[in-house]
Amino acid sequence: MSNSVYSRYRAAFAQGLATALGVPASEIEAQIKPAEPAHGDLSFATFPLAKAQKKAPPAIAAGLAQSVSVPGLDIKAVGPYVNARFAPLPFTAEVIDAARSAGLAYGGDADAGRGKTVVIDYSSPNIAKPIGFHHIRTTFLGHCIANIYRALGWKVEGINYLGDWGKQFGLVAVGFQEYGDPARIDDMAHLVEVYVKANKRAEAEPEFDAKAREFFRRMEAGDAEALKLWNQFRETSIKGFKLIYKRMGIEFEHIEGESRYQGKMDAVIDQIAKKPGVKESEGALIVDLPYAENEPPILLKKKDGSTLYATRDLAAAEDRYERFHFDKSLYVVAQDQALHFRQVFRTLKEMGHPWADRTVHVAFGRIHGMSTRKGQVVQLNDVLDEARDLVSAKVTENVEAGRLQTANAAQLAEQIGLAAIVFGDLKHKRASDYTFDWDEVLSFEGHTGPYLQYAHARVVNVLRKGGGAPASYDASLLTLPEEQALVREIMRLPEVVRDAAEQYEPSLVARLLLDVAAALSRYYTLGNQDREKRIIIDGNDALRAARLALTDATRVTLAAGLTLLGIPTPDNM
Fold it and tell me: Where does the signal peptide begin and end (predicted)?
């Protein structure tokens, strides 16, 4: 169980109610919900008790409120609800101290997943092709989910499962023979040029397409010359991919691909033949299962004997369990592949694997409207370049006007551009589609990455001007409604991180950070109307220290949350 400030008070409230009702606390805790802010922080509805007690819910609530006493909670009846509000002390100090003592680890819980392993399959581009913008969702979602699980103490085995086997490599090979420059075989951009030309020609000339298929058949047959050339293409691609991942701050525990399972599929097919069984269908080999009406069968081998994605994914799932003995195995792949994964997981279960239920398809929706300002569809690296360049103009303007001081304007532009693209994706619920808009993602206002980075830079600047974060402070002085509202937003991060892990939903963290930044903005702007409400208040050192401590806890919360999302946190903007 989480040991966050919120969870401790929630558990204490549940225990107090349970004692008064004479039932186990476990029966009560699930019924405690967040209260309407005007009425408290926690709420327990008494409607389910009315029949047994033969009383009206408001009367039950009134009686319970009088009989339940929990240190640190103000408990009152509000109609049929028993509501609890966190008393200003020790609650305020507990939240601020929890954030400040944890630092960038705030929101996590190293004990939550101790001894557990999660395998996360994400990004997964095809070699000899660029990482396209359509890879943004699997890459950023997978990276963020991996960060969240690490923060919760899980051992994470992140796998970049490359598409490195199939006819497309035959296309690159025969295309290279026609259009390639041997001196540029280590140049990723050149391989992409070759692939585009070869693919276009194969669509127009069946004979050229047949040559590509023949090359791939040589690969599957273990032809040494074909495999040597394929391996050169693969290494060139991985080298190019790593440069892009480094730019995004992403590292994988494992970079491997479909080729890992070449030569191992027959053993998997033999297992399936025993249970649940296989059969031929129109010359292809399929899993022998009952299928729903119009449901395509699970293909294991095509008519020409070549294997398919399902065969390789089944082999990969078995291999991953043998290597990692995972508690969860996540596949961060587009919603379009939902049927594929349902069938793969179903086959694993029918094969008798008890761990099949630990496999999860973390599906996501599509992005619409993505193009550069010039109009063409682009590669992910091109999108990052364009974001950086557009931000760079703003950074330069602010530096020249004296509104910004930075030792490295180019680095700052890169950090802000990356934040714009990453947060522009992660703020959306993963299952939903969304439309990409350059003006929206690059804005320093509204629900954007640059807005959150600016909020973080603002609190860093306040602390700098205030002489730094205080070692000690008096939390009882933080009585403004805006201060208490900000404390409550800071409190939420550990619970939100836990929920994000359970739901595989990074947008929960993104939305919480927006709430923190909004509460900070309301607090910060108080001083514009009333000097006595400024954070750096003159003539009252104790109040100044308390407000700076709250500001420091806000800084930590923003930095910790942005780090989980994979977003840089510059100190100046």
Answer: none
* Per-residue pLDDT tens digits for 351-388: 999 999 999 999 999 998 765 444 444 688 988 999 99
Q: Which long-range contacts (CB under 8 A, 24 or more apart) does 98-102 make?
A: 98/4, 98/5, 99/490, 99/493, 99/553, 99/556, 99/557, 99/560, 100/469, 100/549, 100/552, 100/553, 100/556, 102/556, 102/560
Phi, psi for 45 (deg, rounded to 5): -85, 135
CB 82 within 8 A of CB 43: yes
Task: Give which of 160, 166, 163 is closest to 127, Cα–Cα.
Answer: 163
CA 384 from chain center: how many Å?
A: 19
- In the chain, the amino acid numbered 118 is V
Q: Is 198 exposed, middle or buried (0-12, 13-18, 19+ CB in 10 A)?
A: buried
Of the candidates 149, 6, 248, the residue with the CA atom closest to the CA atom of residue 506: 149
Residues paired with residue 40 on neighbouring β-strands, in sequence order: none
* Placement of tokens 């791939």 in the chain: 216
CA gap 174, 356 in Å, rounded: 40
Residue type, 104: L
User: Does residue 90 have a cis peptide bond before it, meaning omega lies within 30 degrees of 0?
Assistant: yes
Q: Give 528: exposed, middle or buried? Use CB within 10 Å, 0-12, 13-18, 19+.
A: exposed
- How many whole angstroms separate alpha carbon 408 and alpha carbon 423? 23
pLDDT tens, residue by residue, 425-456: 999 999 999 998 888 888 878 899 999 999 99
Q: Token pair of 17, please?
A: 């109610």
Backbone angles phi, psi at 163, to 5 degrees: -80, 90
**Contact 137/131 with Cβ under 8 angstroms?**
no
Q: Which residues contact 379 (CB under 8 A, 6 or more apart)?
A: 130, 131, 132, 133
Please tell me the distance from the alpha carbon of residue 152 to that of residue 132, in angstroms, as a whole number: 31
Place of tokens 């404390």: 487
